[in-house]
Design a protein that fits this description.
Layout: E1 6-7, H1 12-17, E2 31-36, H2 44-58, E3 62-67, H3 72-85, E4 89-93, H4 98-107, E5 112-116, E6 126-129, H5 134-144, E7 152-157, H6 162-178, E8 183-188, H7 195-207, E9 212-215, H8 220-227, E10 230-235, E11 246-252, H9 255-267, E12 286-291, H10 297-312
Parallel strand pairs: 2-3, 2-4, 4-5, 5-6, 7-8, 7-9, 9-10, 10-11
Antiparallel strand pairs: 1-12, 11-12
């Protein structure tokens, strides 16, 4: 197989090297963190949290325990069990249990919470974050725009919550910035983890004329590979798994958020704040990884100019959380 030259940007390991996770000195205090994952840790979104937590644990900044595949009906129970075990912080998601999660946090005010959420923080200890890799998605769209022969671009998402909406809207905006006449097909599978269902949604979009797929969900690239069209991955790097199919990835790095929350907890600061800004590209929270040999050479320069402008703060990708149609 021909090796492809690839552009790799910041990774969780690089964040460790940059000092976000400084190894704890002998005798230095560290906190115990519990990860509660609604999906398996192999799921793209959960894998980002899990990887960052494992990195922090390996560097000695935290002790880490976790549960995976926790249903909404069991999520509150899992939160309380970990709280009773004496963990210092819970990392997870409250999308399906927003009210219950906040009530539990109020019952354990000495604990910190760092939760993926569509709502804002509450109290002194309930911190929240959104998954903001819309900037990388925009750049991926810029690369994708000249690659389509049909001018029809597909996107497969989970559920139309704000974070998913803004990611797909960011991708569409990147495509349309280069190709204003582009047509977009959008599909939601109604769950966060169902690769066969995402594949079927992708196949339906290909049947409708799409020859580029944006895969907000795992399984989309399977459809693209099966039909020989190009695909973009989200959150993690899918190119090693689909080397002839996935030409770009809108990466998301959880490490900056986690490092900020851990630092707040260790310093005794309130953790009931919005940590979403640490997702931004200028903070190392998201970026694009792409295969140079798979994209038009003339598309790289303009994309890199916009990327530099995003990092410099002179270009802002719109935060559009409305449901894409």
């Amino acid at each position: 197989m021909r090796l492809k030259r690839r552009r790799f940007l910041q990774t969780a390991s690089a964040l460790t090297a940059a000092g976000l996770y400084a190894p704890a000195a002998i005798g230095q205090a560290k906190i115990k963190v519990a990860g509660i994952h609604a999906s398996p840790v192999e799921n793209a979104w959960n894998s980002r949290l899990h990887s960052a937590l494992l990195d922090a644990a390996s560097e000695g900044s935290i002790d880490y325990v976790f549960s995976e595949g926790v249903s909404a009906t069991d999520y509150g129970r899992a939160m309380r069990e970990y709280a009773e075990q004496g963990v210092d912080m819970i990392v997870g998601e409250s999308y399906a249990v927003e009210q219950e999660a906040r009530e539990i946090a109020a019952d354990y005010p000495d604990m910190a919470y760092l939760m993926g959420s569509s709502g804002g923080p509450s109290g002194e200890n309930f911190g929240t974050f959104g998954t903001w890799n819309h900037e990388a998605a925009y750049l991926s769209g810029m690369l994708a725009a000249p690659m389509s022969k049909s001018g029809i671009f597909g996107a497969v998402g989970a559920i139309p919550i704000p974070e998913v909406n803004m990611l797909i809207n960011g991708y569409r905006a990147g495509v349309s910035a280069v190709r204003p006449d582009a047509e977009h097909l959008i599909g939601f599978i109604g769950t966060f983890f169902d690769p066969p269902k995402a594949r079927e949604a992708g196949l339906a979009q290909i049947d409708a004329g799409a020859d580029i797929l944006f895969g907000e969900r795992i399984g989309t690239a399977d459809a693209a590979k099966e039909r020989g069209v190009g695909a973009i991955g989200s959150l993690i790097d899918y190119t090693p798994r689909y080397p002839e199919t996935v030409f770009a990835n809108a990466m998301w790095y959880f490490s900056p958020l986690l490092a900020a929350a851990v630092a707040d907890k260790l310093a005794g600061n309130a953790t009931g704040r919005d940590y979403t800004p640490y997702c931004l590209m200028k903070e190392g929270g998201n970026d694009i990884v792409f295969s140079e040999s798979m994209v038009p050479a003339e598309a790289i320069g303009p994309m890199e100019e916009v990327r530099a402008a995003i990092k410099a703060g002179t270009f802002e990708v719109p935060v559009d959380q409305s449901e894409p149609v």
